[in-house]
Amino acid sequence: MCFVVTKSFLLTCCLPIFLMGMRYYFSRKVILHYLDCALHTDMSDIEQYYMKPPGSCFWVAVLDGNVVGIVAARGNEEDNTVELRRMSVDSNYRGKGIAKALGRKVLEFAMLNNYSSVVLGTTAVKMAAHKLYESLGFKHVGVVEHYALPGMTRSLLERMFFQVRYHRYRLQLRE
């Protein structure tokens, strides 16, 4: 269609490269802003946010003296749920069962503290993350289209070149 409108092979060939460049730029911008927000909120003071409040905790997976993964649990007394948060495993150690062990630790924590369910939300695009949650017993309960990550400006260009789906999961432990 570009060629029909412009009659230019050069413009027709450059347009996809330009569009991919814009997608890369805005994806990188949004992700870096999101990481900056995380590093200046709960991840800036893990003890205060996850260790001191009752019903919350934070675990670190260590292998051969190296931190290879993390996960947090944040309790919500109002609806008697605990949220699995910040699960991350170093890319060099994925596929070794570390994420599953961290997830089980949160489930164990939830049961010991008499929570009725565990919830989580993820923007992960890799199917492996979704399969992990399902293997732990979580049920997919919904998707929020065009989700705004913390740090997003929601500008027109940002919305055109970077869209996020937010998947919600729940594991019912007791009624």
From TrEMBL:
Domain (N-acetyltransferase) ranges: 20-163
Protein name per the record: N-acetylaspartate synthetase
Family named by the database record: Belongs to the NAT8 family.
Membrane-traversing stretches: 6-26
Compartment list: Cytoplasm; Endoplasmic reticulum membrane; Microsome membrane; Mitochondrion membrane
Catalysed reaction equations from the record: L-aspartate + acetyl-CoA = N-acetyl-L-aspartate + CoA + H(+)
PANTHER family tied to this protein: GNAT FAMILY N-ACETYLTRANSFERASE (PTHR13947), N-ACETYLASPARTATE SYNTHETASE (PTHR13947:SF11)
Gene3D superfamilies in UniProt: 3.40.630.30
GO molecular function, one term: L-aspartate N-acetyltransferase activity
Gene (UniProt): Nat8l
Its job: Catalyzes the synthesis of N-acetylaspartate acid (NAA) from L-aspartate and acetyl-CoA. Promotes dopamine uptake by regulating TNF-alpha expression. Attenuates methamphetamine-induced inhibition of dopamine uptake.
Signal peptide per UniProt: none
Chief location of this protein within or outside the cell: cytoplasm
Entry membrane topology: Single-pass membrane protein
Keywords: Acyltransferase, Cytoplasm, Endoplasmic reticulum, Membrane, Microsome, Mitochondrion, Transferase, Transmembrane, Transmembrane helix
Record EC number: 2.3.1.17
UniProt cross-references to PROSITE patterns, sorted A to Z: GNAT (PS51186)
